[in-house]
Amino acid sequence: MNNFLSPPEIAASAVEAGVAKTKLSIGKLLVLGFLAGAFIALGGLVDLRVTAGIPATFGTLKLFIGAAVFPVGLILCVIAGAELLTGNMMSLPLALHSGKISGIKLIYNWFWVAIGNFIGSVFVAYVFGYMAKLLTTAPWSTATIALATDKVHLSYLATIASGIGCNWLVGLAVWMAIGAKDIIGKIFAVWFPIMTFVAVGFQHVVANMFFIPAAIFIHGNISWGSAFSELSAAFIGNAIGGWIFVAAVYWFAYMRNEKAEAVA
Q1: Domain-embedded: residue 76
Q2: Is the predicted pLDDT of residue 264 greater than 90, yes or no?
Q3: Structural domain of residue 53, as residue ranges?
Q4: What is the CATH number of the domain that holds 211?
Q5: Which of the chain's termini has less CB crowding within 10 Å, N or C?
């Protein structure tokens, strides 16, 4: 007996998950969205805490260590349960292409989950990063401000392109986690793609909801206007990555002709 689903079975399960997500109340979407934002922010926080003090001469090792610990955020979302916008950018479009949900229901989910994710991310940034002073002193403050500054100074088009790569990988992480039948399988399914996107340096809209506000709270020279501009570009790129490069291609490969084949 296999301990994982086949790709066509993953596609069917992802559609079911997408449909179920559209049936959640606003309250549940906000609460579960808050948890997802907080979980991803905790992944970002541990990344900063363990890497900020590593000398720049160990650049590659430093990058890998940060990438190795960051996936705890999505692992928590997948196993403990939460509503993450970037994961929903894969499952809901797949359900939409399959004719199981409407575009209005997709927007409904994305809108409320995005708000919940933002609140959860900012909560961790302010309460733990600022109030608990985990990011207010060097080397953590220096690393946080430098990272956020690099993000807001990236051009709009470059951020969109980077966001595509990010959510191609995040969508695949969620896709494979759906296919795993045990916790260890889900952890490994999530860890490798998320480690990859962090090591490469792709832009993740929910992670950036933590990094950029954290830098603002600790008095980095970043405006909220530039923060929201960056987040909008990351959102667009992430939506394209999850929708086109995961949901649409797997719908085309495994689900497009299922009604016709069933009739035949």
Answers
A1: yes
A2: no
A3: 7-256
A4: 1.20.1080.10
A5: N
Please check whether residue 262 lies inside any domain of the structure.
Answer: no
What is the b/e burial string over 183-222, where b = at least 16 CB atoms within 10 angstroms of the residue's CB? Answer: eeebbebbbebbbbbbbeebbbbbbbbbbbbbbbbbebeb
Is residue 263 domain-resident? no
pLDDT of 145 higher than 50:
yes
Q: What are the tens digits of pLDDT across the range 79-110?
A: 999 999 999 999 999 999 999 999 999 999 99
Helices 205-217 and 140-153, packing angle to 10 deg: 120
Give the integer Cα–Cα distance in Å for 193 and 167. Answer: 10
Rounded average pLDDT over 15-20: 98
**Helix runs in the chain, H state only:** 7-22, 26-51, 59-69, 72-76, 85-97, 103-123, 140-153, 156-179, 183-200, 205-217, 224-242, 249-254, 258-263
Which position has the higher pLDDT, 44 or 59? 44
d(CA 210, CA 45): 8
List residues bridging with 180 in a β-sheet: 4
The tally of domains found in the chain comes to 1
Which residues, in sequence order, are bridge partners of residue 4? 180
The DSSP output letter for 3 is S
* Rounded CA separation 109/89 (Å): 10
- The answer to whether residue 258 scores a pLDDT higher than 80 is no
Q: Is residue 1 part of a domain?
A: no
- CA torsion 24-211-201-92 (nearest 10°) is 10
CA angle 151, 115, 52 (to 5 degrees): 35
